[in-house]
Amino acid sequence: MEIERLIIIGSGPAGLTAGIYGGRSQLSPLLIAGQSLGGQMALTPEVDNYPGFPDGTTGSELAQLMQKQAERFGTRVVMDQVTGVDLSVQPFAVKTYGATYQTKALIVATGASPRKLGVPGEKEFTGRGVSYCATCDGFFYTGRRVVVVGGGDAAVEEAMYLTKFATEVYLIHRRDRLRAEKVLQERAFRNEKMKFIWDSVVTEILGDENGVTGVRVKNVKTGDEFEHPTDGVFVYVGNVPNTQFLGGQLELTERGYIVTDRRCHTSVPGVFAAGDVQEWVLQQIATAVGSGAMAAMEAEKFIAELEDRAYPGRTE
Ligand code: NAP
Questions:
Q1: Domain range holding 276?
Q2: Which pTM was predicted?
Q3: What is the pLDDT of residues 255-265, one digit of tens each?
Q4: Which atom of ligand 1 is closest in space to residue 237's alpha carbon?
């Protein structure tokens, strides 16, 4: 079996940037993209804070541009999903639904997925009124009522996107203050279609054979419970890292994120992590891009040393 020099898992901004830098370092990386290109970035309808786009752009456009740039430098992008890895020996093994690969170095840039609310009705009505992606499903709520759960950047940004379609957007947040950045908050408070239910959590998602009809809401300060009628529930309560496929072979934090040093090295030499899958303070496209570049440059150094050891007499 041919041994790859560098495999990158994940096609969000961290993985694609690692592809650009790894390609430019002549490593001909194999980038295993996952089910779709662009990761969470591709599901973001408006990207307003990534440098170089003064009028904003969309996440999917940014993903396509990054892919094109990585491929220009020789990175090969395959649409497949990694199911397991063996990091116990060199070369590492990477197993996907379609193939098994061997590689000298690995960059894990698998990001994070939306956290579930974990309340009755959520699973049952997912795809029938419960959604984690306003970009994908917002259009279906044209002229209808929706609620958004959460108070971070994602909840506020996606709630405002939904005001383009829905007649009313209620944001239900468990505290009396949003976590989202100030500029987003101000835009949300100015938006006439946005309404807020403070200090409250959704305890149940209600519905019938046609889908969601409402949510049961509990005020955490007073204990009062009431039903709020709605046609759709969009959940934005943070993320969980995609590290299950690693089978415990890398050191993780308590919350399941990969532990790295400042140069993206993980607990296994030759394995690097970049982007939201790292325990990272600021989860932004701009920071993911930075760590993707760092991981690729460190992988390049690792591969050079490994290949030098394999050919000790070699002089360049
Ligand atoms: P986040 O910043 O972790 O916010 C999660 C929100 O959900 C918080 O308001 C939290 O409440 C609430 N929450 C958590 N668990 C809950 C539960 N069980 N029930 C009800 N509410 C719950 O997550 P995010 O908004 O998905 O963003 C993830 C990362 O991506 C962040 O670093 C964010 O800055 C970044 N991001 C940035 C942008 C942008 O720059 N425009 C856009 C999207 C995402 P508390 O506030 O009480 O903790």
A1: 3-113+239-306
A2: 0.85
A3: 999 999 999 99
A4: 7
